[in-house]
Sequence to fold (205 residues):
Amino acid sequence: MTKPKYWKQAKIFLSKKDKVLKKLILKYKGSLKTRKDPFFSLCKSIVGQQISVQAANSVWRKLEKKAKKIVPKNISKLNNRQLSSCGLSRQKISYLKILAKKFITKELEIKKMKKMSDKDAIKYLTQVKGIGVWTAEMFLFFNLMRSNIFPVQDIGLLRGISVNYKTKYPPSELQLKRFKNKWSPYCTVATWYLWRSIDPEPVSY
Fold:
């Protein structure tokens, strides 16, 4: 597990720009970590779509137990009934199967994405059925460890902003735009601390 090279500099930058974040940075230890395992990361993001962190973690633990190891071959071998017993919806089962096939056939080239801009990388990933903007953003956030990901569709981020900055829920588009401008180029780090402020268990994909 490795952490981003920009983390220390980002904490200094955000602490100077934002009093609320400064308090969160002092309060919560640790940092974003990555396994550098693209398939693992994308699978976990798909499992986490539109459900709470706690629910996603419960499903994920069952899936890990059933698959033994989260690799394309093992996911591909599991039948729909086995996957359903983990708590996965029919739709998510289909998405995981499609993703496993893309990795097995090497149709999805993750290495290409490393040289792409955030926008282009998201566009490339969202061509895969089951990977929407949020899932692609989670991949850039946790696997590629891009520094300026601001996932405005993420419930945890919206809750974190609402709780810590005393805004209405969800925050308005204008408010989100102002936060993004204030925290750039380290929106990833700001988001991570806001997540930590509302969830005792660090988010990871």
Observations:
- The chain has a mean pLDDT of 95.
- The two ends are 12 Å apart (CA to CA).
